[in-house]
Amino acid sequence: MPKTKVNNVTISYHIIGHHTPIVFIAGLGMDHMSWIYQIPYFQQFNRVILLDNRGMGQSTGSAEQYFISMMADDVAAVLNHLGIKKAHILGNSMGGMIAQEIALSHPEKVKKLVLSSTFSKHPEMIIYLKEGLTKIIRNNTDYEKTEFQPELFSFKPVHSFLLHQVFSHQFLQLHETIISHTLQRFLSQETYVETFLKQLHAIYHHDTLNRLSQINAETLILTGDNDALVPPSCSEILANHIPNSTLKIIPNATHGFHMEQPDRFNDIIHTFLKKK
């Protein structure tokens, strides 16, 4: 993948296809391959831009703690490097938080905005997630502190816990082998756990609630009615505060329905993007 130096890191990116640019932004602990079910479809209609958030995949990290605004600035800087003035911005979960910040801090970059399975301010799920992870992580890591100790972080049980919040039991059973290989690929990266913890820190401090009314881009908000991690009420809050927004609650869909039901996910978004 090509790379470019932006801010104080090197961001890895890939471009596939032509026509109107669309940027896909991955969620917590994921790299650009989380969009594997979207790439073949959208490259028919769009110039697909995939990138690895700082510290993830082939992108380098930085020493300081991470914030959502920092990662949003990275995306905007990559677009500047590519000479792209405006693009559709799509983010899932943490990627949706980054997309919100892009729309707020770099509104001139956003053609249309898609926010999937995400929220504007940490709801009760953060407490639930924090409690679940604290039971697993040795020495009871405190996520409110800025000093993390990745060497004490036992990641495999954490990964299993998170997967059961994101996907259905049937999906996990069906894809057990590829999920295992993906985890091994992630853990082979020396700074993966450190980056994961820094992303958790960024999510915990994410708060756009009082600024959502400033988003001018036409926005599609997607959520699944079976999302165990970010309930549909979070998407309803987004829809109530973003002026030019449409909310779609997908029946029988989980937090990771872009991977579980890619055909439905892709069709809904393509219909939204092509609408004049």
Count of alpha and pi helical runs: 11
CATH superfamily of the largest domain: Alpha/Beta hydrolase fold, catalytic domain
**Count of DSSP E strands?**
8
- The structural domain count equals 2
CATH topology of the largest domain: Rossmann fold
- Please state the oligomeric state of the protein chains shown: single chain
Tell me the span between the first and last alpha carbons. Answer: 33 Å
Beta-strand content: 15-25%
Strand arrangement in the largest pleated sheet: 1-2-4-3-5-6-7-8
Structural class: alpha/beta
Residue stretches low in confidence (pLDDT < 50, at least 5 long) are: 138-148
Into which percent range does the helicity of residues fall? 40-55%
The main β sheet shows up as: 8 strands, mixed
Q: Give the mean pLDDT.
A: 88
Q: What is the approximate shape?
A: globular
CATH class of the largest domain: Alpha Beta
Q: Secondary-structure element order, as H and E?
A: EEEHEHEHEHHHHHEHEHH
Rg, alpha carbons: 17 Å
